[in-house]
Amino acid sequence: MSRRYPELADKVAIVTGAGQGIGRAIALAAAREGMRVTVNDINPTTAAATGEAIQAMDGQAHVHVGDVSQEADVARMVEETVARWGRVDLLVNNAGIEPVASILEMSPELWDQVMAVNLRSVFLCTQAAARVMRTQGSGVIVNISSIAGKAIPLPFRSAYAASKAGIVGFTKEAARELAAYGIRVNAVCPGVIVTPMTAKARQDPAMMEKWMREIPLRRLGEPEEVAALVLFLASDDAKYITGQAYHVDGGKVMV
Ligand SMILES: NC(=O)c1ccc[n+]([C@@H]2O[C@H](COP(=O)([O-])OP(=O)(O)OC[C@H]3O[C@@H](n4cnc5c(N)ncnc54)[C@H](O)[C@@H]3O)[C@@H](O)[C@H]2O)c1
Questions:
Q1: Ligand 1 atom closest to Cα of 193?
Q2: pLDDT band at 4 (very low <50, low <70, confident <90, very high)
Q3: DSSP character for 189?
Q4: Does residue 156 form part of some domain?
Q5: Integer angstrom CA distances of residue 250 from 94, 247, 255
Q6: Residues pairing with 111 in the sheet
């Protein structure tokens, strides 16, 4: 299979939450470009499956089972990657959770959990990877936010929307701060993508009907379509792009 970005071959990527959905698609797309990929997930079974899929296409994968909201797990993820391959060229902060709870009923513990998994993790992983990238003088970080963090808050997902908006703010700050070390940082804001996260909502005909009305391209997105934007941002074609947050959502949000 031909590679779109030959400059990515043999470079090293870390993709969090890569056991399924968008993260898996990103990990496979990176491996297709010849990147060596650390596949992180909290779920050992799905993480191993993504690692096997990469090896089945003659790619190189390192499976890291860990919780990205935990400092020690994140440190181990980056240390193992550097011990194995000597560098980190791309970090994709993709792991996330989207619990449904009203503001009136939500426990503070649930709020904290969403912030830890969706936002604290982005800080922890960025810090650990950027320390390696700084010594290299180069690196790319792509944070997976959401249209919920930009313009379209979803009902009963206040913690999710706040965490995803936080990612956009963090992305801009990180882009400014880390540019001095040759590190670019961007965010990607997917719309409604066909993954396990949206499986329940996709079974609701009223929800599907609403989405089809709201999405100009009249369909949901595929994980590979998010991965394509991530790989573009990782490539040299995007070498003058930093501090941005791009929608990939069929036109649902136009700002
Ligand atoms: N699917 C969509 O429509 C959509 C839309 C906008 C944004 N997003 C974002 O894209 C990212 C991926 O979404 P998805 O749809 O593939 O979700 P998903 O639920 O299908 O997959 C998320 C993966 O993250 C892993 N994960 C969860 N907590 C973790 C932790 N603490 N440490 C490590 N791994 C952890 C899960 O095990 C799972 O494999 C998320 O950040 C999500 O918020 C998704």
A1: 3
A2: very high
A3: E
A4: yes
A5: 20, 9, 13
A6: none
Inter-helix orientation angle 121-136/71-85, to 10°: 30
Q: How many domains does the chain have?
A: 1
Residue 6 clears pLDDT 90, i.e. is over it: yes
Question: What is the per-residue pLDDT for 1?
Answer: 63
Q: Give the residue numbers spanning the domain of 134.
A: 6-248
> Which ligand 1 atom minimizes the distance to the CA of 47?
39
Rounded Cα distance, 187 and 197, in Å = 19
- Pocket residues: Cβ below 6 A from ligand 1: 16-17, 19-23, 40-43, 46, 67-69, 94-98, 117, 144, 146, 190, 192-193, 195-198
> What DSSP string describes 109-130?
HHHHHHHIIIIIHHHHHHHHHH
Residue with the nearest Cα to atom 41 of ligand 1?
A: 96
Q: Which atom of ligand 1 is nearest to 19's Cα?
A: 39
Q: What is the CATH number of the domain that holds 145?
A: 3.40.50.720
Please give the distance, rounded to the nearest whole angstrom, from the Cα atom of residue 188 to the centre of ligand 1: 13
10, part of any domain: yes
Q: Is-catalytic flag, 181?
A: no
Residue 254 forms part of a structural domain: no
Per-residue pLDDT tens digits for 59-85: 999 999 999 999 999 999 999 999 999
Lowest mean pLDDT among 103-117, 145-159, 182-196: 145-159
Q: Answer yes or no: is 222 within a domain.
A: yes
- Supply the pTM of this predicted model: 0.98
Gyration radius (Cα) of the chain, Å: 17
Ligand 1 pocket mutation pick from 26, 195, 246 by most atoms within 8 angstroms of CB = 195
